[in-house]
Design brief:
Layout: H1 12-18, H2 23-33, H3 37-57, H4 59-62, H5 71-81, H6 85-89, H7 95-102, E1 110-111, H8 112-122, H9 129-136, E2 143-144, H10 146-158
Antiparallel strand pairs: 1-2
Helix pairs in contact: 2-3, 3-7
Length: 175
């Protein structure tokens, strides 16, 4: 789903959508939200590792101090990174780790409950969460495979179509 010629920086919809993804907040909140400390530590580690990979991929764009970025600067940096073909292709790099972090029972799929838990931990908007989960469940079997999750992740970051359901990946977005 690589998009050529999309002006991410000037798309109000994309900027609003991108600002809902909060890897730093997720990495540090997970620790407080789980009833299983071992699983919790694993998810926190994976969330932090996803963030580290993401920042490494876009290191040149973010500079040396990504933790000093505010949300607006973060979205600006991503928009600039996505101007390049390489930047767009790198979107999927952390997908496997993110998938494994959400697949808390490690059965190879993400269930509605696991997705809801993720949104709760992330403090995402749970409005229409079941409807959005089902819309991103492309084969309709009630779970997300890795491929379905990766499609949703790439769609979230690279799609500027306001009707695309992947916009709800990190929580409900009003039209």
């Amino acid at each position: 789903m690589e998009k050529e010629g999309v002006d991410f920086a000037n798309s109000d919809f994309w900027r609003r959508k991108a600002s809902t993804a909060d890897f730093l907040g997720l990495a540090f909140r997970v620790e407080l939200e789980s009833s299983d400390p071992g699983q919790n530590a694993n998810l926190k580690y994976k969330a932090k590792h996803v963030l580290d990979i993401w920042l490494e991929v876009y290191r040149v764009r973010f500079g040396d101090s990504p933790k000093g970025f505010n949300r607006e600067e973060y979205v600006d940096a991503l928009a600039k990174a996505f101007e390049t073909r390489e930047g767009r292709l790198n979107v999927a790099i952390p997908a496997r780790l993110m998938f494994e972090a959400l697949d808390r029972d490690r059965n190879g799929v993400i269930t509605y409950k696991e997705y809801g838990d993720f949104l709760s931990i992330k403090k995402g908007d749970l409005t229409n969460v079941e409807q959005n989960f089902n819309a991103m469940d492309l084969n309709g079997n009630g779970t997300w495979s890795f491929e379905e999750f990766q499609d949703a992740l790439v769609g979230f970051w690279l799609c500027v179509d306001e009707k695309d359901v992947s916009k709800h990946l990190y929580g409900y977005m009003e039209e």
